[in-house]
Specification:
With 262 residues, the chain is of the alpha+beta class. Helix content is 51%, strand content 18%. It folds into two domains: 72 residues, Arc Repressor Mutant, subunit A (Orthogonal Bundle); 174 residues, Beta-Lactamase (2-Layer Sandwich), CATH 3.30.450. It is built from ten helices and eight strands. The radius of gyration is 19 Å and the shape is globular. This is IclR family transcriptional regulator. Keywords: DNA-binding, Transcription, Transcription regulation.
């Protein structure tokens, strides 16, 4: 292995640990993060300690658990001006949750995953708790990732399915034939449906949001209990998602093409 290969591997490991921490709602142990990142525990501990010295992660002195550090907040604040679309999307999320009563979410594509970046709780008292800000799923697993994956070109879908082993972690319902069938259905409907494939009796639906180049870069989704996603109501929810996804796409396209002044 060349020095360049070793450097690349080191960066990938650090990134995997940061994603593992960021995907959790609470601080996590070294062992848990090593498992999530696919690393040996000694390797994870060494990298986490090095990141702590740079302020990228913090360690609780009592529990020994790790969380994201202050330096990431500062870096994130700088990047937010270019990448954060939550202000543009907030009223869209409000409208989705207000008109449906379900919890509404905004997810962003990050490589082969989606990460939930904003949420708005619905008024219906019984909720699904599958999604929360920071959680990540592979493309095609949750409704947001299925909506994004379904709107990629066929070549990109084929390449992704060739390298992603969803069946191993997520079971038979995420085999390639099953996923391709859901992709076909999503393309036909325009919106995706996840019929309790992650958590029993917890449904989700999603619609892709496109960037200025027409690429599916984000997704809006609604989640709730199965009783709220009966066939007649799914049509209403799908239409609502598509309307709001179109509005957010239009809004973001206008923002990206607007002149910028110093």
């Amino acid at each position: 292995m060349t020095a360049s290969d070793r450097s690349g591997q080191g960066v990938a490991r650090v990134a995997a640990l940061l994603r593992a921490i960021g995907s959790r709602s609470d601080a996590a142990s070294t062992t848990a993060l090593a498992t999530d990142a696919g690393l040996a525990r000694p390797t994870a501990h060494r990298l986490l300690s090095a990141m702590a010295s740079e302020g990228l992660v913090d360690r609780d002195n009592k529990t020994g658990n790790w969380s994201l550090g202050p330096e990431l907040y500062l870096l994130g604040a700088t990047a937010a001006a270019a990448y954060d679309i939550r202000d543009d999307a907030q009223d869209v999320l409000d409208r989705l949750s207000g008109e449906s009563g379900e919890s509404a979410f905004l997810s962003a594509r990050r490589g082969d995953e989606t990460v939930c970046i904003a949420a708005q709780e619905g008024s219906f008292p019984v909720r699904s708790h599958v999604l929360y800000e920071g959680i990540r799923f592979p493309l095609g697993v949750a409704s947001a990732g299925l909506a994004i994956l379904s709107h990629l070109p066929d070549r990109d879908v084929d390449q992704y399915l060739a390298r992603a082993d969803l069946h191993a972690k997520w079971g038979d319902v995420h085999s390639e034939p099953a996923l391709r069938a859901r992709i076909d259905k999503t393309r036909l409907d325009g919106y995706s449906t996840n019929p309790a494939l992650l958590v029993e009796a917890s449904w989700g639906m999603g619609a892709a949001v496109f960037d200025a180049d027409g690429r599916p870069a984000w997704a809006l989704s609604l989640t709730g209990v199965e009783a709220r996603f009966q066939p007649d109501r799914r049509h209403f929810l799908g239409r609502l998602l598509l309307e709001q996804a179109h509005e957010l796409t239009r809004r973001l396209g206008r923002r990206e093409t607007a002149p910028r002044f110093p």
